[in-house]
Amino acid sequence: MENSILRYSLVERVMHWIAAVTYCYVLLTGLAFYSPHLYWIAMVLGGAPTSRFWHPWIAVTFFGVLLWMLRTWAADMRITSVDRAWGKQMKRYIENDDEALPPIDRFNLGQKYFFWAMLFAGFVLLVSGTVLWIPEKLPWSLRDVRYIAVLLHVSSALLTIGAFIIHVYMGTAMVRGGFTSIIRGEVSPAWAKMHHRLWYQRVAGK
Amino acid sequence: MPGNLRVQAISGHSGAAPGSGAQRQERVAKLIDTTTCIGCKACEVACLEWNDLPFRETAFDNTYQTMPQTAWNYWNLIKFNEHTAADGSFHWLMRKDQCMHCADPGCLAACPADNAIVQYQNGIVDFQQEYCIGCQYCVTGCPFNIPRFNPATKKMFKCTLCTDRVSQGLEPACIKACPTGCLHFGTKEDMTALAQTRAQQLRQHTAHTNAGVYDPAGVGGTSVIYVLHDIANPEAYGGLPANPRVPWAVRLWKGPLKWLGNVAMIGGLIGVTLHYLRFGPKKVEEHGK
Ligand code: HEM
Ligand code: SF4
Ligand code: SF4
Questions:
Q1: Range of the domain at B33
Q2: I need a labelling partner for A46 at 20 to 30 A (CA). Which of A30, A82, A105, B118 fits?
Q3: Total number of domains in chain B
């Protein structure tokens, strides 16, 4: 694209897609064990014992990528006063009334919430998942830990699923140009100006 | 699945259990009279023999117990407990510990794997190792701390109540080996009656005025019932829970949380679809082109 702007570097795109693929695998194998009606997913993915074996390992990889994202995007993900002003008018964003919104930087408040929700829930999933992973190490007297872990694991997985549905919907169907940006890395100046004006001004030097 | 046993419930199964309600089968029960157990461990040996389990290393913990708790290849263990009664008298409480074969089995409720745990209409709860995925959710579900994990094969094991023998009209191996007659096997109805008679006999003719039958209602009754010297204090018998129940966390997880989660996930998908239909995509107008 002529005079397009680089939104995501190759490294950022690779990072994103490792997170996406590992999350989807963990999500699907998790859902297989969550509901008898979805147990067939585990069969499709190589059998239930295989899924049981890989779910925690791939999940740990996923959490590793979340930490990598944190290092890469920590500055961009900080929630600022600009975001709070934007957040007050989120309804306009939802209703596609974008013209009236205050200009924002590289990510909008929704994207930042998504990132922090995934990181926080990912941490809870990691801790509770570790208990589910090696329960034989827990003595019977500490069985309450097992009960709490399973409830936390399911609740935080559901939280990420809700966030994930919105994320995928917005990235593919709702915000046109978003999907190309995470694949090819580039956006048009008009796209940048409309969605992330402060960032546009910063990177375009205007 | 052994011979002619009818299935009543299957773990991790969508839809009804095939064959449930097709035929009526008498519930069975094992009766353990702790007041006549002499701790000879003949039942432990019989269990190993019949189930062809290799003898394993034991662990000495200053009691006569073979090992501190049952193991994946040691399903039946006499627990030895030294107990001082309220009047200062000394008692040796011996209790045969194994799966209780709950009518409302927490292990089965928690298990995510289709067919890994089966409950037969006669009340036996049995693990089918070929379907087990080794997640150990059954440990979380069981109020009696029974299922045991084999780390080498990643499969779960426990007492089968000798399904293979019972389905052929035989009594479990442990029953056959008991020399004092403290173990009995028969229909749940008959065993309950026998247990009640024995408890009454103890109350009337011995010092055990508080003798009673342990058949905990919290798990719908069990297919292994005990006669205890003191029904008010099952904990003294090596940690037999006074009021066992399927943990509330397991009920919450497999019940309301599951439905809430399903509704939220499907609602989320419907929600974004409706949003698209109502508001459509955000398009960027390419000014100045
Ligand atoms: C971060 C480290 C994680 C670890 C160590 C972990 C580990 C585990 C383990 C050991 C189980 C038991 C069954 C199995 O192994 O498949 C489990 C279940 C599950 N996991 Fe994870 N997990 C992690 C992250 C996640 C993530 C990111 C999700 C996202 C959706 C997730 C969703 C689930 C679900 C839905 C279940 C089934 C719960 C049920 O049986 O109701 N897990 N996890
Ligand atoms: S470990 Fe227990 S809960 Fe998990 S599949 Fe095997 S029998 Fe079922
Ligand atoms: S005692 Fe435990 S393993 Fe046995 S049937 Fe009851 S819940 Fe299942």
A1: 7-251
A2: B118
A3: 1
Nearest to A190 by CA among B283, B272, B144: B283
Can you give the residue range of the structural domain that contains A53?
Answer: 5-204
Q: What are the tens digits of pLDDT across the range B175-230?
A: 999 999 999 999 999 999 999 999 999 999 998 999 999 999 999 999 999 999 99
Name which residue sits closest to atom 12 of ligand 1, judged by CA.
A132
**Does residue B123 have its Cβ closer than 6 Å to ligand 3?**
no
Domain harbouring B40, CATH code: 3.30.70.20
Neighbour tally for A54: CB within 10 Å: 16
Instruction: Provide the 10 A C-beta neighbour count for residue A10.
Output: 9
| Binding-site residues on chain A for chain B (CB distance < 8 A) | 32-37, 39, 48-49, 51-52, 94-96, 98, 132, 135-136, 140, 143, 146-148, 150-151, 154-155, 158, 161-162, 165-166, 169, 173-177, 188, 190-191, 194-195
Residues with Cβ within 8 Å of A49's Cβ and at least 6 positions away in sequence, in order, are: B133, B134, B154
CATH code, A123: 1.20.950.20
